Amino acid sequence: MSQEFPSPQQSPRPALRDEAAPPAGETTGERNRRLAHIGVARAQQVLTARYRLPSERAAFELLRETSQRFNIKLHTLADVVLRTPAPDAGASLWFPRRTRHDPPPLSHLAMAGAGRTSHGAVLKGALRRVLQVAETTMGNVQLAEQGMLRMERHAGLNREFTEFFAFVRNPTTPCAQAAGRRQQITVKDVAVADAFDEESRRTILQTGSRASHSMPLTGPRGQAVGVISTHHDRPLTDFSRTRLAALEAVGAQAGRWLLWHRYTLVLDALEHLHTSAPTAR
After folding, report:
1. 3-state DSSP helix/strand/coil percent for the chain, to nearest 5?
2. CA distance 32 to 89
């Protein structure tokens, strides 16, 4: 029987002082720290108001404890706090009617056993399989959060590349286009492609990449929850239909699993957060 997962829902977001335009002269490291903080800061504000916590620091500790207990990254937990409608007023449970599902199959990733419920293991397996199909050793996984693509895993790429592309907000980049269009996109020659500004082009070329291929990770309703991109040390020709189909199969299974993780294991964490919050319900 096929499993259907709910679509992400956006709850109202409070105004946040550090979402102002980037300051002049901001370095890549400063930008990454600012963007990494946005979602967590929003979630702190939401939880402080919802549970009448004494401070945003108390909200952070609640997030941190839950993140560690359930082995879920803090920024992922914060993102789901913001996307999930608030629990009913006075309710003892956040999700009283939730139905749990087993993890979806990962046959195209060759995943089995305990790894089938590990976020890190599944991303590692998906990237490994995509690199095999694309016949390269360079690639990265980005997940969609807070209107951005956030790098979660990479292989064969140097620090300058991974820091520069740690967060992608520009809709003209091939990875963002692959997510937005929900289709695979090949850049046959980075050196002459129109898809990049000159700083992005230089950053890609300096890591040894001359071509790239971006593939969306899609859910059962076609929604893109992330992207896997491969990089190649020489210009590409078009991938064969067989290779594109193999990549699409990996993207569909990985995307479906990511939604299962978010709407099963991450919601388990939210339920714990709700029941352990020091508030009068």
Report:
1. 45, 15, 40
2. 36
